[in-house]
Amino acid sequence: MSWCLTRRGVEHVVLERATVGHEWADARWDTFCLVTPNWQCQLPGWPYRGDDPDGFMLRQEIVDYVRGYAASFDPPVQEGVSVEELTPAPGGGYLLHTSAGTITAEQVVVATGGYHRPVVPAFAGSLPAAVHQLHSQDYRNPAQLPPGDVLVVGTGQSGAQIAEDLHLAGRTVHLAVGPAPRIARTYRGRDVVAWLHDLGHYDMPVEEHRDGEAARLGTNHYVTGRDGGRDIDLRAFARDGMRLYGRLNGVEGGTLRFADDLTANLDAADRVSESAKDLIDRHIAAAGIDAPVEPRYTPVWTPGPDHPTTLDAAAVGSVVWCIGFRADYSWVRVPVFDGRGYPTHHRGVTSVPGFHVLGLPWLHTWGSGRFSGIARDAEFLAEHVAGRSSAGAASGLRRDLALAAAAPAATVG
């Protein structure tokens, strides 16, 4: 956003509560890597420039990419400044009450994403005190956990990859499998992301998605870029010793109780992956592409009729909660949120003049929450901000001198 505003000559300030790129540096595990190919990293003015476009950047490479981007144009970032409250200003614009004082701005772009508060269920408090618990954002490596079995709860991208990380390290892993979909890494000679890119899936507006705006609440497909990229096949993990269960429902009397939905969840994930292959097959046939034929997936393990739905909580030494995050906009005192606390908007423009959001999943397209599509969203918003900024200046909108800084636009991210 700052890059786009800078190009348009819009005065602005970027407020960052920690440091540029800190989430990538401080809230990811050691073996974390991208799950989309490096060539999809298309920040405005800063496309991927390495020598492995079909590879997957590791955590430190991602940090270097983001921080190198910032250094390339020296954005007006104020690090170590947290926004404690954002309110409408008398007479127009906004007041940002920060740890460094008050800032006034004609317009605001909230670019904090939607993953703010780690989710841990209330029944976590019923686990034995000896069980070590942590959220995925605090997981770093298997050695961090005490000896003993590990229960990983959730099979979105984080849960599936952390379970694999522990499994490859030789830990005994119990995995509570949810309804998250999966996707194949490669099919018919190419990365599936490349096929979906050609099919225009990353450019599809949310309004054209079969689920409409409900797509914004969906869970990402699990796959990995680890060791050059591969499928994550939970059935293969089970075949090789990982212990799978259905969704974790709670803890009763020291017993972990799981839903009897493991088979359904595994089958549903497979159907999503195979349906993507159907799309690819039709695209190849329609375009007359010469691509190698590949056999379809055959399940390598299936739960038996007596598969367990309980586990003695004392049998595990650690639990890693991988069930996501909740958005927390409690600091924003602007009436733009629906009953779920989600900001209502069209392509990041809300119904409240001068208040915008950026970087949310499916903000406009599937690429919106990714390095591949953020440039398009930022360009669209920058045009809107620049247009309003010019109109505001023409009408004599007052810019109050603030304790920290005053600017026509402020980006919080």
Task: Provide keyphrases for this structure.
413 residues; alpha/beta; FAD/NAD(P)-binding domain; 2 domains; seven-stranded mixed beta sheet; five-stranded parallel beta sheet; 21 strands; 24% helix
Give me the count of strands. 21
Total of helices: 8
- CATH superfamily assignment of the largest domain? FAD/NAD(P)-binding domain
Mean pLDDT over the residues: 93
At CATH's second level, what is the architecture of the largest domain?
3-Layer(bba) Sandwich
Number of domains: 2
- The percentage helix is 10-25%
CATH topology of the largest domain: FAD/NAD(P)-binding domain
Specify the structural class.
alpha/beta
Strand content: 15-25%
Q: What is the CATH level 1 assignment of the largest domain?
A: Alpha Beta
Q: Let me know the largest β-sheet.
A: 7 strands, mixed
- Structural shape: globular
Order of helices and strands: HEHEEHEEEEEEEHEEEHHEEEHEEEEHE
Distance between the termini: 10 Å
Give the radius of gyration.
23 Å
Uncertain stretches of 5 or more adjacent residues: 393-406
Q: Can you walk through the features of this model?
A:
This protein has 413 residues and is α/β, with parallel strands linked by helices. It folds into two domains: 2-114 and 327-412, FAD/NAD(P)-binding domain; 117-321, FAD/NAD(P)-binding domain (3-Layer(bba) Sandwich), CATH 3.50.50. It has eight helices and 21 strands. It has helices at 2-7, 22-26, 59-73, 157-168, 192-198, 234-239, 262-287, 374-394; strands spanning 12-16, 42-43, 46-47, 77-79, 83-88, 94-98, 101-110, 117-118, 132-135, 149-153, 173-176, 186-187, 190-191, 243-245, 248-252, 255-258, 310-312, 316-321, 325-326, 355-357, 406-412. Strands 1, 4, 5, 6, 7, 20 and 21 form a seven-stranded mixed sheet that branches. A five-stranded parallel sheet has the order 9-18-10-11-14. A three-stranded antiparallel sheet has the order 15-16-17, with no helix packed on it. The longest helix has 26 residues, at 262-287. It is globular, with a radius of gyration of 23 Å. It starts with a helix and ends with a strand. 37% of the residues are buried.
